[in-house]
Amino acid sequence: MAVILAGNPDQKKKYLGRMLEEPLMCAYCVTEPVAGSEVSGIKTKAEKKGDHYVLNGQKMWITNGGVANWYFVLARTNPDPKCPAGKAFTGLIVDRDSPGVTVGRKEINMGQRASDTRGITFEDVLVPAENVLGQEGLGFRLAMGAFDKTRPPVASGAVGLAQRAFDEATKYSMERKTFGKLICEHQAVAFMSADMAIGIESARMVTQRAPWEIDQGRRNTYYASIAKCLAGDVANKTASDAVQVQSS
């Protein structure tokens, strides 16, 4: 997404064009052991030396980390701690086979087991200056812009998960009988089903609103953030409630 938003023609041809010709993958390296939601707390550094940047740092919970052919890496290029986030970070394209790139073990997730999630370490990795996205100092704004575009798809996945859990729970509740009647007729189960439906439809509406704002030519940060937060919470609660229904 970062290359789509800010890549120059040469970068798009080299890194996006090849993805149409062969099965290549990329990964988005922003999160760190000490910096998740607070992106401005990133410690990974890139120091300009000649026509290269020397990259050092560690990223965590990187989706596609073990299968990616190249990474988008957000790194601090201004060492001044008082420098505002909007000018302190730079987005870099880093090839996986660059010397100094170490891919960690696959994390064992509670869900989404097919996701290849890993930590990535960069030790004195030389990144050509031509791999800077946009220009030096624009990385934070670039990362935030990418989040605006990627949060709605994450929310969509959460809504889909919640809907499937709800469908399975509903089907079960209309087949299983206790005390002489279907469990969907018990008030406790009915209330739980109603809450699941309310949550899912609410999350679905705001998830649809987020990309619609872009279609209207408006920035969608507000709705994209709400969608990801709400849909994620709804998915967790619905999955938990569905388990309760199917254990009745």
Automatic annotation (TrEMBL):
Recorded GO MF terms: medium-chain fatty acyl-CoA dehydrogenase activity
EC number, UniProt record: 1.3.8.7
Pfam family, one: Acyl-CoA_dh_M
Keyword vocabulary terms for this entry: FAD, Flavoprotein, Oxidoreductase
GO BP terms: medium-chain fatty acid catabolic process
Acyl-CoA oxidase/dehydrogenase middle domain segment(s): 27-125
InterPro entries: Acyl-CoA_dehydrogenase, Acyl-CoA_Oxase/DH_mid-dom, Acyl-CoA_Oxase/DH_mid-dom_sf, AcylCo_DH-like_C, AcylCo_DH/oxidase_C, AcylCoA_DH/oxidase_NM_dom_sf
Domain called Acyl-CoA dehydrogenase/oxidase C-terminal: residue spans: 139-246
Key word Transit peptide present: no
Cofactor(s) for this UniProt protein: FAD
EC class of the enzyme, as a word: oxidoreductase
Any one GO cellular component localisation term in the record: mitochondrion
Family according to the record: Belongs to the acyl-CoA dehydrogenase family.
Name of the protein this chain belongs to: ACADM
Origin organism lineage: Eukaryota, Metazoa, Spiralia, Lophotrochozoa, Mollusca
